[in-house]
Amino acid sequence: MKRVLVVDDERSVRDSLKMILEYEKYEVFLAENGQEALQLLRERTLDAVLLDVKMPGLDGIEVLTKIRTLGPSVPVIMISGHGTIETAVEATKLGAYDFLQKPLDREKVLVTLRNALAHAALTRENEQLRLHLEGERKILGTSRAIQAILETIQQIAPTEARVLITGENGTGKELVARAIHRASKRAHGPFVEINCAAIPSELIESELFGHEKGAFTGAISQRIGKFEQADGGTLFLDEVGDMSLQAQSKVLRALEESTIQRVGGSTLIPVNVRVIAATNKNLEEEIRKRTFREDLYHRLNVIPIVVPPLRERKEDIPLLARAFVEEVCRRNGLPQKVLREEVINALITRDWPGNVRELKNAIERLIILSRGNEITIDSIVSYGTVGYKHSSDSQSGFDMNCTFQEFKDKAEAAYIKYQLEKHQWNITKTARAMDIQRSHLYTKMKQYGLMKEGIEDQE
Description:
Blueprint: E1 3-7, H1 11-23, E2 27-31, H2 34-43, E3 48-52, H3 60-70, E4 76-80, H4 85-93, E5 98-101, H5 106-134, H6 144-156, E6 163-166, H7 173-182, E7 191-195, H8 201-209, H9 226-229, E8 234-238, H10 245-257, E9 259-260, E10 269-270, E11 274-279, H11 283-288, H12 294-300, E12 303-306, H13 317-331, E13 338-339, H14 341-349, H15 355-369, E14 374-375, H16 377-383, H17 404-422, H18 427-434, H19 438-447
Parallel strand pairs: 1-2, 1-3, 3-4, 4-5, 6-11, 6-12, 7-8, 8-11, 13-14
Antiparallel strand pairs: 9-10
């Protein structure tokens, strides 16, 4: 049974709607003012709200605004005896599903309510599908660096502050931007992205701001740009360091004035957009080269977030690798496969210059090309997943001309050395992290010449 909240300061309206809705098998809750309505929304899960605009104390528009912070997916139908176009437009902008005028027509109320509930159900299904797909896009990691980023996201997301995300290619800058959007007050609005490096400089302004018909050769119709598309939501400027200086000046103006002007147009169009930018370049160096505007840099760099390369958070590789295995198998309709522990160890020793993106591609290659339900060292050797020299902090490089046993020994030695260094050579902590006995770890350390003075065997 669907639960509907009726909010109106007139008792006759409340009673009338209660009778109509209960006859149609809805469970009805009543509130005579905004405070009561908000309290009910905090205490119960409701499916829809019929909300009067004119009420003493908190009016309907104020209540609608607060409802959006409590349950943004709850459809709200505004009702009023003094309805104006301006009020209806304002309510719609704030997320109201529809606007009904008094005296209320029974059939119109029921049809609007059914449509609102159906729309809400479809929205939830789409959201579940999006979350299922974006489960593949979650920020994964238990390292200090990733946990610090997640904490920062939770702190800054509810604000309107602009964010500049920096990091190497493939580190997951877009994931950070999407996470900020999802946790923000703009989550119900669009997330629009543009890769500034992928668009020719002569077209970037049209992409960002749109153009009018006939603005230039080939402009056969009006086009809405990314700023307008992102109105009410978030605009993600990826690889902003590759934007032309001319486009930079117009972006700066848009940020300062919250208005844009289409190419070939003369009208200033207001836009309500939160901008998140990302780059793999050192923008301070680009400023010195005079290829990036310093004033735009300061506008964008309100909250800086640096995404570390994968080589600086290798403890996240096991979690990432297993998540990618599950994702690739599900996406390709394959039975779930398992990564053998020696494979995880070998992946950890790799520097991954292409970062998380390269690791994901390597896992996908292993899953698709390997036979059986287990991914073994054989698969890594056969398909060249870690087929070249590694960083100096590994035990040694992987020579593909060595024997299979030599390859496994080097991978295991590098993994043990990495875990020892990570835990400051504390044997107890290292053994616990590796899920092996201390005596077994000692044996392996002696086998690979990893003994050193001052090793701790304590908590």
